[in-house]
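pasting for the record
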Amino acid sequence: LGFIGVGKMNSGHLGNFLGRNEVQVVAVCDVDTNRRDNAKKRVEERYGKDKDAGYKGCEAYNDFRDLLARKDIDAVVIATPDHWHAYIAIAAVNAGKDVYCEKPLTHNIHEALTLIKTVRGSKQILQTGSQQRSSKEFRIACELVRNGVIGKIQRVETQFGSPAKSNANPEEPMEP
């Protein structure tokens, strides 16, 4: 299994997969050096004791295409910034990988149709993350609002999880 993007969402997914014996994480990818190195360290700490059982370590990549080129990776988990989701998912399917990709899967109809055509023309499986879209609590909350049970909404403020960090990320190189 390879992880493409190891920020907040995929860091959580990584922990879930590291707790499962039926999969093995062998690669992580992120353009942020700290995130990439931390994810690699986490994986190697988990599997370090299993090296005698055939585990060969975790490779860390800056470029997702290098990860996708590996023949020993069956599937990838994608949680990059949204505008990369469709592009990377299409590349992954074309590389023969099964894909779990965070929402939103695409940004427009063209991306959606291209992704559908790519998946249908392959033997790969694609699943979109839909946390909080199908939970009972969120469905009930939506019904209460739609049916006017809580009255007319004047203002909404929301926060989920930790407070947002500032977006003081380092400058990233751009391809031409």
